[in-house]
């Protein structure tokens, strides 16, 4: 229940869109375009499927081999 309330009141359709121009540009032009992220270590299929991760650690560590290598190297 708390999670739903927070999502409904905080993460609205206009989250981070502070001006009317930002809302128009996003909703009328960019909303349906693909997300392009050239520095992402998650598999594109997981992003496309809008995969929900169990917690933030799963996102940070799941697909980032650099973090795993650093943890192994630094103990």
Count of discrete domains: 2
Order of helices and strands: HHHHH
Major beta sheet summary: none
What portion of residues is helical? 55-70%
What's the alpha carbon Rg, rounded to whole Å? 17 Å
Number of helices: 5
Question: What labels would you give this structure?
Answer:
2 domains; mainly alpha; 75 residues
Give a structural overview.
The protein is mainly alpha-helical and 75 residues long. It has 2 domains: 1-33, no CATH class; 39-75, no CATH class. The chain has helices at residues 2-10, 20-30, 44-48, 56-62, 65-74. The longest helix is centred in the middle third of the chain and has 11 residues, at 20-30. The chain starts with a helix and ends with a helix. 0% of the residues are buried.
Q: What's the layout of helices and strands?
A:
Elements: H1 2-10, H2 20-30, H3 44-48, H4 56-62, H5 65-74
In short:
This protein is an all-alpha fold and 75 residues long. It has helices spanning 2-10, 20-30, 44-48, 56-62, 65-74. It folds into two domains: 1-33, no CATH class; 39-75, no CATH class.
């Amino acid at each position: 229940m708390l999670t739903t309330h927070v999502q409904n009141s905080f993460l609205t359709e206009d989250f981070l869109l502070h001006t009317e121009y930002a809302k128009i540009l996003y909703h009328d032009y960019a909303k349906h375009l693909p997300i392009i992220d050239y520095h992402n270590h998650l598999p594109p299929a997981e992003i496309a499927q809008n995969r929900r991760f169990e917690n933030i650690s799963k996102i940070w560590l799941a697909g980032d081999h650099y973090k795993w290598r650093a943890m192994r190297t630094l103990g």
